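Our preliminary data section would be incomplete without showing what the modeling component actually yields. Below, a chain of 633 amino acids is followed by its predicted structure, encoded as tokens that our downstream tools consume directly.
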Amino acid sequence: EGNNVLDELNMIFSSVACFNGSFLDHQNDEHFKTGPWSSGVDLIAARLFFDKMAKTEYSKLLQQATVTLENRLIAQLPTSPPDFEAMRAFLILPVFPLFQDPKNYLTLTLPFAAAVLRLDANPSKVLDNWWSEVDIGYFCRLVEIYKNAVVFLLTRMKTLQLAPLLSHYVIYALRVLEKLYKVNMNANRVAYDVFYVHELNNLVNIETDYLYWASQQAGVKIQPAIAEIPVAFCTYPFVLNARAKTKMLQTDAALQMQIAVNRTGVENIFMLLTLGPFLTSSPFLVLHVQRDNLVSDALRELSIHSDVDLKKPLKVVFLGEEAVDDGGVTKEFFLLLLKELLDPKYGMFTQYEQSRLIWFSEKTFVEQNWFHLIGILCGLAIYNFTVVDLHFPLVLYKKLLNVKPSLDDLKELSPTEGRSLQQLLDHPDNDVEDAFCLTFAIFRENYGIIELQELVPGGNKVAVKKENRKEYVEAYVDFIFNNSIRELFLAFSSGFLKVSGGKVLHLFQPSELMAMVVGNTNFNWKELEMSAIYKGEYHAAHPTIKLFWEVLHQLPLEKKKLFLLFLTGSDRIPIYGMASIRMMIQPTSGGEQYLPVAHTCYNLLDLPKYQNKETLRTKLIQAIDHHEGFSLV
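Predicted structure:
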């Protein structure tokens, strides 16, 4: 009987036709609802069957099935299946449990990837459709399989000297991930960061890989980051996390600076990056400004520098002061200048009370070059590891990357407006015109004056009905984010792109770009403690320091964020994490009656030598609760 089972199993697992006829969804019609969007496969039944096979008592069956799949079935997978039913194996096979076992990557998982990539255009599109309809667990598992395969292959290539044999498999895995990523872009199954392969930061020289990618874009041949793999991982930016992309952007800046210094061209990239510091006479962008004339001086100084100069490390000199800029002066420059530019008296931006976010004012009293300056500052922040406290919504970064704004963006900026428009779209009855009484024109208030703005030509006479309500919402969103602030945004974006433009920018997701400018909220308070630097008699084991960290770790998240704002001038953290803050703590000569004091520009905390935990907690909370922001002690 056992042999009969093995024979039957061998027959099913060695024939594509038999395999395709297994695990059918019998709840549907005689064709099992098979079509371009439905596979007719019962994936739950397939998973239960394979899970049962994975049990110890069926190990012989599992081993036989694996061998048969490797030697027979995978090789038979067609490139041009005659019908939808002939494609079911492409959906069933990844459910097989040993698909996820690294021992089978080279014999099962990656040969299957090659078969997927060999599919002709039409069946390949059908597989995309099926993938977009599977449950989230299946989709995520498939992504993880090929992410893990990339890591497995790169690790083996480094340790076992098998690069020539494995290089094509790396490309197969990346291309399958690319196919899945494109499916996800259309179907929105999972967050984009699910595709990150974080291990690439250690397995691949990101700087060299970017240079290889840039040389390909320029039509120049140089050595890839991993010599045996003729591929730039930058070609697959969705697998690179924000830290890797930050390195890419900084490498791009260094590349452009050195090209400007030595015009020998892209062919000498490596030589330029090595010799650049000796070839250039001014490796820094130095700005000379006065505190009492900061905006005008900054506009003047930035206007005299070339686009490439703006990508150099920034050094700021406050005229009449002797302080050497080792980072603190630059940070102070950003904080002071942004505080001035965001002053409500200029009316450059409108703050939305519900979201506490800002957006471009539709009417303003300042010249457009002020917006250009803020754009440059955001670009400079990227290259100078400075988090700027600009509370723009995500849509700003979408627009910089030419991603169309949506109703979700309006919901983030102005929740009430967004919900109202969603209610309009969701209204179930046909009486939209009578129920909402809207036309393609809206009233907007600017400085106490209410004006009627038409969303389309003659919009005041066009009623919103059930048939055109979607167009109304799109026009409304377009007005808020595009038409009403077009010239101001163009000034801002031209400033930003002057510093951070180029092809490299479009390797980013909007939220990744946002994190580079304003930081993120991936708090790791232990990391802050481990990276702290102590001055004077303070050290990690000092009683006051131990009390301080006990108190900080016990504070609720909102208080911790207030402390971060108190210390650094922002409640967000740099893209490289909390360790990059490099917090410094020094003792003071004052007694316990004094509050802690933060030197925001240096991330420096003056901490009195408190003797007990309760006093320290009380004084610290008093200090952070009375902090007003932009404190430049």
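Residues 219 and 266 are 10 Å apart (CA to CA). The chain has 27 helices and ten strands. Preliminary results of this kind motivate Aim 1 of the renewal.
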